Amino acid sequence: MAQVTLTINDRKVTVDEKSTVLDAARQLNVKIPTLCHLNLHDLKINHTNASCRICMVEIDGRRNLAPSCATPVVEGMVIRTHTKRVLKSRRKVLELLVSDHPFDCLNCYKSTDCELQTLVNEFGINKNTYEGFAMSQYPVDESSKAIRRDLTKCIMCRRCETVCNNVQTVGVLTGYKRGFEAVVAPAEMKGIVDTKCTYCGQCVAVCPTAALTGISYIQDVWNAIFDDKKTVIVQTAPAIRVAIGEEFGMQPGEIVTGKLVAGLRRMGFDSVFDTNFGADLTIMEESAELIERVVKNKDLPILTSCCPGWINFLEYQFPDLLNIPSTCKSPQQMFGAIAKSYYAEKIGKKPEEIVVVSIMPCIAKKYEASRPEFAPNNVPDVDFALTTRELAKMFKEAGLDLNDLPEEQFDSPLGESTGAADIFASSGGVLEAALRTAYEKMTGKKLDKVDFVSVRGMEGVKEVTIDIGGTPLNFAITSGLGNARIVLEKIRSGESKYHGIEIMACPGGCINGGGQPFIHGDSSIIEKRMNAIYKEDSGKKLRKSHDNPSIQKLYKEYLGEPLGHKSHELLHTEYYKKHGS
Amino acid sequence: MEKFNPEPKIKTLPDELYKKLDSYIDDLSVDRKDPRKKGNLIQVLHKAQGIFGYLPEEVQVHIANRLFLHHSEVSGVISFYNYFTTTPKGKYCVSVCMGTACYVKGAEKILNEFEKMLNIKAGEVTEDLKFSIDALRCVGACGLAPVVLINDKVYGRVKLQDVKKIVEEYLVATESEKKE
Ligand code: SF4
Ligand code: SF4
Ligand code: SF4
Ligand code: FES
Fold it and tell me: Does the first or last residue of chain B, that is N or C, have fewer Cβ atoms within 10 Å of its Cβ?
């Protein structure tokens, strides 16, 4: 691609001709503030509507200031990023934003993690210059178990709309009304619970302010921990161990499994277990299902079912395909079901005396935990699902700094796992884990090379053909619901030639879940988390789910066979057609 | 083929009106692969409001499905334009001009008076569907400011005390209809 050279603050820089002034400035490490703009290159997500005007710069020969996020570079351009005029204009933009924004950072969900607050702080704005003028008022939407919407904090950047409508193609959010009254909201200003929202939380992940956040269960979990009558156990999803370090100033991609365990134990959980155990169990069941369907050539392609965001998408928008996903519950729910049956019996407790808390990278898991079919006799299998961010807050509240904690081991038996479970966190991982087991079960031979590298990576749609004992099987791996839509439409139209498809709602997989530490526009963080996940896997002695001794024991003592009667009762589910705007 | 948006459980508006709208949409031959290409939405909403008189949720969802759009998008566009309304108009639609000339001559007070008398706000309709109130942009009769329209009939230089008389005039009309 052709290159152009321009000058920014008296320094020359050469960039490719498709760049914006903002891209060029970043290449020079010149910081220009942004609020509405979002460009996640690695995930191919770009939102440039240039509405906030905070990123203005001065360009020689142009009368007006220009928004750097939306101004293409031109050969020989001369740009200044912090002249008197620029700073004055940015300050005005901020003052106007603040004039329609509550000044209540002290009790705000996003305090210290808000892009608006950061800028207001950097600009030293400490009062509402336009105090007394109108301020928009909206009731807080807490209609769901998962997403909290507080539109008084909305700055109309419309990132959420791009993500929900264009990236995820869910289509829940729209610009509603105009002028001062304008907000981003569901059709007819409905509560989110009356829409076809999947609770993927990707809108939460990109919202610069606290207008969109998750519903918090921190207090409920503290209450359970301090309740002597309850046995409180915790499971932690694979994606947490490669991300939570970021909340404690560590480098993205730092693996903190052992410290995480130590922290959870010190917080007061009675046992510290691993969702990885549930993931290994999922593979036992799902690979058996895959083999059965391939052998019978029935209900193909089989779709993975461990992502509740994607399952919601299916139930609302593809109800004609309800019969093809795997019937396996997600690892979170498999863990919960086993904890409140097998494990409860082992420790001599009733299910209602045990509280299962799960730490998830995900907002949809909060919703999933509340699905009525996962609460036999009204006792939920998973009581509370917290996000990575919520756990980090609880650690801080308890004075626990991950940096200072020793490395400890998960408890037995629900803490034992293999590398196959770790990779669930990343797009391609569930399929790879299933292949490691399916290969050995189908061929009866030992699989020496367990790495199926062709299914890995950040690409939104990956297609692979894998030879299993002479049978070539076609698979697709998609992440992001817009990409899922592409393959689902193919199934509908009969064009699909796949035997199996892995679908994750979040672009890149759970490592980029709606509950993870905010990346604030730096998508290279996702890739670092992904690399860490594969590192964690390759460091494990056991890397195939069926080699997990605790899983083997569980089948021997309790479940019998994969897809057997007991498994069906505890580990499988069904899907429902749902309605929403 | 499944719909983008689930159909509302009960459709309350008459079938023949839906048929009228459908035949209009059929003629547009919308491309499912690129439904926004021709920008049909505004046109269709305009037509639909002509047919139904207003654009309630059931009509919105129907249009969304026929044009392969999400309901949210249809709803967003409707909310953006003052011209579109999601509440039915009354038999007698009171339109108060709020253009500059009328405003200066006290249109707001006139509007408030209508709101008080009919016990509804601008944009709303009375429970018996007899009266609705709209606040309009300039209707172009500034010489008569402040101007009020009841359906197509124009009332000029309206004074506060006229409001009661005007409302009563139509109340009487509806009463005599009842007797017939
Ligand atoms: S809700 Fe958040 S992401 Fe959406 S427009 Fe408002 S501030 Fe932006
Ligand atoms: S959670 Fe996902 S589906 Fe729901 S509004 Fe946000 S982006 Fe859309
Ligand atoms: S991809 Fe993972 S984090 Fe995202 S919705 Fe699905 S399960 Fe949750
Ligand atoms: S960041 Fe460029 S206009 Fe908002």
Answer: C
For the segment A81-104, the average pLDDT, to the nearest whole number, is 94
Q: Which of B1, B57, B73 sits opposite A171 (nearest CB)?
A: B73
**What values do phi and psi take at B142, rounded to 5?**
-60, -30
Rounded to 10 degrees, what is the CA torsion of A436, A437, A441, A442? -50
Q: Which of A160, A176, A313, A491 would best serve as a mutation to test chain B binding (most B beta carbons within 10 A)?
A: A176
Which of A521, A275, A514, A517 minimizes the C-alpha distance to A395? A517
Residue of chain B whose alpha carbon sits nearest to that of A175: B76
Helix segments in A52-198, DSSP class H: 84-99, 115-122, 159-161
Instruction: Count how many domains chain A has.
Output: 3
- The nearest CA of chain A is from the CA of B5 a distance in Å of 7
Tell how far the Cα of A212 is from the centroid of ligand 1, in angstroms: 7
**ipTM of the shown complex:** 0.85
Model pLDDT, residue A131 = 75
Q: Which of A259, A365, A462, A528 is catalytic?
A: A365
Question: Strands B92-97 and B148-150: what pairing?
Answer: antiparallel
Residues A327 and A397 in one domain: yes
Q: How far apart (Å, rounded) are the C-alpha atoms in residues A295 and A256?
A: 41
Please enumerate in sequence order all residues whose Cβ is within 8 A of that of A169, keeping only pairs 6 or more positions apart, or say none: A481, A482, A485
Q: Does A172 touch chain B (CB under 8 A)?
A: yes
Q: What pLDDT does residue B180 have?
A: 56
Residue A487, in any domain of the structure: yes
Cβ A172–B70 below 8 Å, yes or no? Answer: yes
Alpha carbons A404 and A265: distance in angstroms, whole number = 14
- Written as one letter, the residue type at A151 is L
How close is the Cα of A510 to the center of ligand 3, in Å? 5
Shared-domain flag, residues A360 and A495:
yes
pLDDT in tens, B79-114: 999 889 998 888 899 999 998 999 999 999 999 999
What are the Cα distances from residue A298, in Å, to A431, A498, A499, A560? 19, 12, 10, 24
Query: Considering every ligand atom, which ligand is closest to the CA of A482?
Result: 2
Q: What's the rounded mean pLDDT across residues A339-352?
A: 98
pLDDT level of residue B6 (50, 70, 90 thresholds): low
Cα–Cα distance for residue pair A289/A564, rounded to 1 Å: 11
Sheet harboring A471-479: ordered strands across?
A302-303, A500-504, A471-479, A461-468
Tokens for A395, please give them.
């650690």
Q: What was the pLDDT predicted at B4? A: 58
Point out the domain boundary residue: A214, A245, A265: A214
pLDDT at B1 over 50: no
> Does A562 map to a domain?
yes
Average pLDDT, chain A: 96
Of B112, B106, B114, nearest to B157 by C-alpha is: B106
Tell me the per-residue pLDDT of B152-176, one tens digit each, with 9 for 90 and over: 899 999 999 999 999 998 888 777 7
Distance spanning both ends of chain B, measured CA to CA: 50
Distance CA A230, CA A225 (A): 8
Higher pLDDT, A179 or A281: A281
Nearest residue by C-alpha to atom 3 in ligand 4: A50
Instruction: Provide the domain limits for residue A111.
Output: 106-214
What would the pLDDT profile of A397-419 be if each residue is shown by its tens digit? 999 999 999 999 999 999 999 99
Decide whether any atom of ligand 1 lies within 6 Å of the A504 Cβ.
Answer: no
CATH number, domain with residue A76? 3.10.20.740
CATH number at residue A459: 3.40.50.1780
pLDDT at A338 over 80: yes
